[in-house]
Amino acid sequence: MSITCEHCRKVYEEWPGKFCDRCGRALTRMDLNDEEDDVYKKCGKCGHRNTEDKRLCDNCGELLHEPQI
Confidence band (pLDDT; 50, 70, 90) for 26? Predict the structure, then answer.
């Protein structure tokens, strides 16, 4: 299962840790590629993918908007 950084799109074959070694931004477990087809709410502040039912981002607490497909 590969992981793609939401910010710079670098692909990792294994979980690299909390930060992307290319761009330095925080990675989330929601960057896992096998979840790309799910409906989610992407946080506009930190990029974390939250489940559709969330009102606030699980990662940073930002108010979320409509789900993205």
Answer: confident
Distance (Å, rounded) from C-alpha 21 to C-alpha 40?
Answer: 25
Antiparallel, parallel or unpaired: β 40-42 and 49-51: antiparallel
At residue 23, what are phi and psi to the nearest 5 degrees? -110, -15
Spatial separation of the C-alpha atoms in residues 10 and 31, rounded to whole Å: 11
| Residue 33 contacts residue 5 (beta carbons within 8 Å) | no
Cα-Cα-Cα-Cα dihedral of 12, 15, 20, 26, to 10°?
Answer: 140
Instruction: Give me 29's structure tokens.
Output: 């477990």
| Residue 18 identity (one-letter amino acid) | K
